[in-house]
Amino acid sequence: MVAVLLDRFSGGNPEEWIFRAEWCFTYLGFSEKDCLPLPSVYFDGEALIWYDGLFRTKQFYDWNHFKVKLLLRFRQWSFLSSIESVTYFDSINVAHVAPPEVLHVAIESDLANGKQKEAT
């Protein structure tokens, strides 16, 4: 018999934890729809507080939605310049993350383009 171990997660590397969690849950025979309550057993500290609050208020739609929110909350983002952004693509969700000053410029640009289109 093979022992299946899944490390506890308190906010370190969410990509690694998700990879290992999916492998363990699949190996143990859990379907994707049954996985959503399982992180509470493996989360500690800040991650457990975050998860518990969102789970109790039903803010996770499914496992894929949980993964996106986990990555957005705990991924260690790094930007090489103020205009570079990182995009995470999921089969269902797309989340675009950029520094606030870049988002502000992009929103102003979109608004200006919209006004120009309305005028023509």
Provide structural commentary.
With about 120 residues, the chain is mostly helical. It has two domains: about 1-75; about 75-120, no CATH class. It has helices at about 15-25, 40, 45-55, 65-75, 100-120; strands at about 85-90, 95. A two-stranded antiparallel ribbon has the order 1-2. The longest helix is centred in the last third of the chain and has 20 residues, at about 100-120.
- Sequence of strands across the biggest β-sheet: 1-2
Q: Report the mean per-residue pLDDT as an integer.
A: 77
Q: Which structural class should the secondary elements be placed in? A: mainly alpha
Fraction in helix? 40-55%
What Rg, in angstroms, do the CA atoms define? 19 Å
Number of strands: 2
Q: What is the count of helical runs?
A: 5
Q: Give the SSE string.
A: HHHHEEH
Q: How would a textbook summarize the main sheet?
A: 2 strands, antiparallel
Apparent shape: elongated
Distance, first to last CA: 71 Å
Domain tally: 2
Low-confidence stretches: 81-96
Strand content: 5-15%
